[in-house]
Each structure stands twice: as structure tokens, then as C-alpha cells.
Amino acid sequence: MQMDLYTMSRMVFVIPVLVALPLLTGCASSGGSVEGQTGLRVIGDEKGGSIPSSVGVAGNQSSAFEMVTAHCAKFGKKGFITKMDFESGLMTFVCITQKPKSGT
Questions:
Q1: Which tens digit of pLDDT belongs to each residue from 36-60?
Q2: Residues in a beta bridge with 78
Q3: Euclidean distance between CA atoms 25 and 23, whole angstroms
Q4: Coil, helix or strand for 94?
Q5: How far apart are CA 89 and CA 25, in angstroms?
Q6: How far apart are CA 67 and CA 75, in angstroms?
Q7: Residues 6+ apart with CB under 8 A from 96
Q8: Domain spans of the chain, in order of start
Q9: CA 64 → CA 10, 24, 61, 82, 85, distances in Å?
């Protein structure tokens, strides 16, 4: 069986795409700007937000603290935890712009 040039050129294109596709989907699900490596996700905006299922489990809780800091830093603000509900696992926070301390 002999392949013509057109068929070979299509194979040269298709094979790398088939190899790269699983790798790209793995990267897409490994965590992003609003979802952490532990599967936690931030729901909120520049004023603050919440992270469901983040309170009560040591690994999740420390990841949630980091996510609050990163989320508020996107807006040039600092994150402050306002509530940690151990029954529901919900952590809520606000993002506040801190004024520089005056040197007196």
C-alpha cells in the first residue's frame, strides 16, 4: 500500500494534534486563577467573596488563605477573612485597599 503526498502531510499534522490534546486538557484542569490545586474555588469580585468547602480541613484551609491573598492582590488590595463557618465549610472575606501609614 502506497500513500500519496497529501495523505502523508495530513498525518504529519494530525499525529502531533492527537498527542498534544490530552496534555492540553490536563493543563486546563490542573487549577487556574480562581481554582486552586485542592479543587477549591473563589467566588467573588474586587470587594471580596467566599470559598466553599475550605474550612475544617487543614490542607484546604491553608490553601484558601493563599487564594484569598492572591485574589485580592489582583485588585491591589489585601484580603481579610470575615467569617469561617465550620459547619458549612464556608470562608468569607473582604478585599480592602490599605492606605500607607503616614510618617509622623
A1: 556 889 999 999 999 999 998 777 8
A2: 96
A3: 6
A4: strand
A5: 29
A6: 13
A7: 72, 77, 78, 80
A8: 5-96
A9: 47, 26, 5, 13, 13
